[in-house]
Amino acid sequence: MADLLSLSSVDTFYGAVQVHFGLTLRVHAGEIVCLLGGNASGKSTTMKVILGLVEPRAGEVAWEGQSWRGVPTAARIRSGLASVPESRRLFADMTVGENLLMGAYTRNDREVRRDRDELMELFPLFRDRLTQRAGTLSGGEQQMVALARALMSRPRLICMDEPTMGLSPLWVERIWELVASINKRGTAFFLVEQNAHLALEVAHRGYVLQNGHLVLEGTGEELRNDPRIRDAYLGGDQMSGI
């Protein structure tokens, strides 16, 4: 299967501090892939490298086999990449509907509002809330807006950074249901997630980082059943649900 997104032998630094050591991973079209690891393992920096916010010092980031070295974030979004950042980063003083339209800022076609209206099938909660200020929503509702906003760019791959952080169990379950449902329609996902158990329930494949080194990879089922995965978390105390 051809790679949609690939990182090959990536070394990333913040000044003199090295964050990634030869990181290599792949995301295929239509696939859900998760990246796991404890605090300071390099997960969030991986997302920044993919989005073009941090340039690796060595190695390659490629989209469908074409190098993304020097390619700005906006161009990556136009290629079919979308992001649901940690803490969602909605425009709190704008309405739900306005936030959704912001997700289509790279588009110039006439079907943007139609796409927004069709999203109400996936997110019926928003039908009566398009004029509500996004900052007045609950955390779970805001995460749904952030995901819907990402879909407005018609992405082929959505990157989600800690999508369940701070959410109640009910909202966590709902978010994973939406990810699975959207994936069945053909959209790939790359998930950076602290809760390994939940991520591996939905992911087709996963990678585990420890101090910037890739230490494990496999299918979701293989990693769920691998006792070594605990070693990638500080004593296993961050392995929620495992």
CATH superfamily placement of the domain at 1-80 and 188-242: P-loop containing nucleotide triphosphate hydrolases
The gyration radius over C-alpha positions equals 18 Å
Which regions contain 5 or more consecutive residues with pLDDT less than 50?
Answer: 234-242
Backbone shape: globular
Going by CATH, the architecture of the domain at 1-80 and 188-242 would be: 3-Layer(aba) Sandwich
Distance between the termini: 31 Å
Helix content: 25-40%
Give the overall average pLDDT: 88
Number of helices: 8
Order of adjacent strands in the largest pleated sheet: 6-7-8-3-9-10
Count of DSSP strands: 10
Oligomeric category: single chain
Percent in strands: 25-35%
Brief overview:
The protein is 31% helix and 26% strand. It is an alpha/beta fold.
Keywords:
242 residues, alpha/beta, Rossmann fold, 6-stranded mixed sheet, 4-stranded antiparallel sheet, 8 helices, 10 strands, globular, disordered C terminus
Commentary on this structure:
The protein has about 240 residues and is an alpha/beta fold. The protein has a domain of about 140 residues: Rossmann fold (3-Layer(aba) Sandwich). The protein contains eight helices and ten strands. Strand 4 and strand 5 form a beta hairpin. Helix 3 runs parallel beside helix 5.
Question: How would the blueprint of this fold be written?
Answer:
Elements: E1 3-14, E2 17-28, E3 32-36, H1 43-51, E4 58-63, E5 66-67, H2 73-79, E6 81-84, H3 96-102, H4 112-122, H5 139-151, E7 157-161, H6 169-184, E8 188-192, H7 196-202, E9 205-210, E10 213-219, H8 220-224
